[in-house]
Amino acid sequence: MEPRIRVSAILRRENRILLVRHEKHGREYWLLPGGGVSTGETLLEAVKRELAEEVGIDEDFLLEGPVALADSISPAGWPAKHVVHIVFAGHLGDRSLERVTSDDVAVRNHRLFDVEELAELAVHPPIQRFLARWEPGDPTVYLGSLWAP
For residue 99, what pLDDT is reported? Predict the structure, then answer.
């Protein structure tokens, strides 16, 4: 099983984080906006493309990072999957998300969540503890191997 590389971004407004609701195979879960890296694409190109596709941010957007790295390896009994997550960060400022539409067929919605609310959600990868203590400008953190079925 070859690892797949996924880039995403922690997009903040005050103490809130933007998450994207996905539906796949009849399951619903929340993700940081992002997705897979294509062959020949830099990590930064990939995260900017994914932000444009999933949340409509297609202007030149300042990103910090990567700020976190994690890998998810499925446990025995699950379909074989290994994903390396590379997480960037940015500040939404006052940009409106009212008319955001997504080209991604799996994306169903997006929403800003208070960091405290994240403990109640199924977030993939499960990075709630990291987000609760992380501050912009912190050095890159390796979160270890994560898996939440």
Answer: 53
